[in-house]
Recover the amino acids of this structure.
C-alpha cells in the first residue's frame, strides 16, 4: 500500500515514519527543500525520542521517501494525509490557509481515486472546505476523478509519540464513505491486529473529538493548579489532596499534578480555537474561558514567589533555571511557561543562567542572548541566588544537593513541579517553595 503525507512537522513526520515502520510505502512531502534534504541525510527537524533511528532505518530500507513534489508522489497512492500547520490567528481561530492550499494542490495532481485525510488539528467543518477545494481543482482541469475526504485526528504526546502511534489507545476515523472506511481500515490493519480499536464516526464528530480531548486534559491541569493555589492559602498540602482525589477511578491520577501551567503546540492553541468556534456560533464556553485564564495566571506563579522572597527589585540577583521546554522529552518551546518566568525575572533586572537537555537551541530562538546557557545542570548553579525547577526532566530528579549548595551563592529552591522533598531541603538549610504547599 502506498500513501503520501504532506507536511514534515511533528505530526507529519511521526505519522509517515510509523506507517513505514509497519510496511507501508510512504512519501513525505514538504515545500522546505532544506528540511527535505536534511531528512534524506538523517537530520531531524524536531526532537522526539526514537524518531531519528526509525527515520534512518525506514529510509535506508526504501519504505520512507522524502520529496518536495506532490505531482511526483501522488501517482499510485491510495491515501494522502494533510499534516501541515494550523497556526492560531490573533483571535484564536485556526488558520486553514496551508491545509486548503494542500487540498487544492492534491486536486491539481491526483491521477486516480484517493482518500484525502485531514491529520492536522482543524475546526469542525474543515473537511467540507477541503472537499470543496479538491472539487474545484478537479473541475478546473476537467478531470473526472472520484475522491473521498476523511478526518483522522492525531492523539500524540510529545516525548512519547512513537509509542502512542504504534500502540494507540484508539484510532478515530471520521468519514461518510464506505469505500474510504475500507481503505483506511486496510491502512490501519497492522494496528488493529494488536487489538487497538478503530472508532468510526461522522466527520464533524471526529473533528470535534480532537479538540474535546485536549480541552478536557487542559481543564484537568488548570483545575488542579487552581486547587493548588487555594491549598497554599488554606494551609493544605496539594500533594496529599492529589493522592486523595486521584484514587477515585472516575478522576484518576493523570493530568492532576500541579505546576507552572501547560504549554506546547496543542493545548493552548486548541483551547483558544474551541473558544473561538463557540463564539462564532454565539455560544460561550465558560469553562474553557476559565481554563485559559487560570493557565495564563499560573505561568506567573513561580516568578511571584521569587518576588515575595527577594522583593520587587532583582538587580544583582542570579537565578539558575532547570528546564526550558514546555515538558520533558521534547525541545518544544511553544507557549512554554519558562519563557514567561524568565522574561519576568529579566524585566526585574535579574541575571538568568539556564540549562535544558535538548531545548537550548530552540530557546535561543525565543530568548536570544538575554540569558546565559549553561553546559550542564550544575554549571547553571554557579553563583546563583536561587534555583528554579521549571521542567521535570528525569536528570533533575535526584541532584546532589550538597554539591548544589556549594555551587550556589544563596540557598533558595523554587520547585515548580513539587519534585523535591521540602523537609529534606529545609533541614539542609535551603529555603524551599513548591506549588500548593503551605
Amino acid at each position: 500500500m502506498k500513501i503520501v503525507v504532506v507536511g514534515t512537522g511533528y505530526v507529519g513526520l511521526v505519522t509517515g515514519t510509523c506507517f513505514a515502520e509497519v510496511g507501508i510505502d510512504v512519501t513525505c512531502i514538504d515545500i522546505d527543500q532544506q528540511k527535505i534534504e536534511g531528512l534524506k541525510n538523517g537530520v531531524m527537524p524536531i526532537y522526539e525520542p526514537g524518531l531519528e533511528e526509525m527515520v534512518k532505518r525506514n529510509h535506508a530500507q526504501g519504505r520512507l521517501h522524502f520529496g518536495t513534489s506532490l505531482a511526483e508522489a501522488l501517482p499510485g497512492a491510495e491515501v494522502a494525509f494533510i499534516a501541515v500547520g494550523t497556526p492560531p490567528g490573533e483571535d484564536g481561530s485556526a488558520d486553514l490557509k496551508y491545509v486548503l492550499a494542500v487540498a487544492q494542490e492534491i486536486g491539481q495532481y491526483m491521477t486516480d481515486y484517493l482518500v484525502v485525510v485531514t491529520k492536522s488539528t482543524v475546526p469542525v467543518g474543515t473537511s467540507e472546505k477541503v472537499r470543496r477545494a479538491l472539487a474545484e481543482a478537479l473541475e478546473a482541469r476537467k478531470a473526472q476523478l472520484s475522491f473521498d475526504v476523511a478526518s483522522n485526528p492525531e492523539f500524540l504526546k510529545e516525548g512519547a509519540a512513537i509509542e502512542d502511534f504504534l500502540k494507540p489507545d484508539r484510532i478515530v476515523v471520521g468519514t461518510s464513505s464506505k469505500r474510504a472506511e475500507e481503505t483506511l481500515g486496510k491502512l490501519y490493519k497492522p494496528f488493529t491486529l494488536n487489538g487497538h480499536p478503530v472508532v468510526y464516526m461522522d466527520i464533524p464528530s471526529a473533528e470535534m473529538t480532537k479538540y474535546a480531548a485536549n480541552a478536557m486534559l487542559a481543564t484537568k491541569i488548570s483545575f488542579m493548579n487552581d486547587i493548588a493555589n487555594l491549598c497554599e492559602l488554606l494551609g493544605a498540602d496539594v500533594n496529599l489532596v492529589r493522592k486523595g482525589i486521584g484514587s477515585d477511578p472516575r478522576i484518576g491520577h493523570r493530568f492532576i499534578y500541579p505546576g507552572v501551567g501547560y504549554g506546547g503546540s496543542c493545548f493552548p492553541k486548541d483551547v483558544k480555537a474551541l473558544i473561538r468556534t463557540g463564539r462564532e456560533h454565539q455560544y460561550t464556553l465558560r469553562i474553557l474561558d476559565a481554563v485559559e485564564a487560570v493557565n495564563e495566571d499560573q505561568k506567573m506563579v513561580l516568578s511571584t514567589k521569587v518576588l515575595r522572597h527577594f522583593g520587587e527589585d532583582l538587580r544583582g540577583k542570579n537565578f539558575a533555571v532547570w528546564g526550558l521546554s514546555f515538558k520533558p522529552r521534547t525541545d518544544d518551546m511553544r507557549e512554554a511557561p519558562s519563557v514567561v518566568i524568565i522574561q519576568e525575572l529579566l524585566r526585574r533586572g535579574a541575571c538568568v543562567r539556564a540549562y535544558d537537555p535538548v531545548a537550548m537551541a530552540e530557546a535561543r530562538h525565543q530568548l536570544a542572548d538575554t540569558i546565559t546557557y549553561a553546559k550542564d545542570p550544575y554549571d547553571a548553579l554557579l553563583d546563583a541566588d536561587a534555583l528554579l525547577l521549571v521542567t521535570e526532566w528525569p536528570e533533575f530528579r535526584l541532584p546532589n544537593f550538597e554539591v548544589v549548595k556549594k555551587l550556589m551563592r544563596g540557598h533558595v529552591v523554587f520547585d515548580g513541579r513539587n519534585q523535591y522533598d521540602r523537609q529534606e531541603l529545609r533541614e539542609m538549610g535551603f529555603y524551599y517553595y513548591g506549588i500548593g504547599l503551605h
Summary: The chain has three domains: 2-201, 211-297, 299-433.
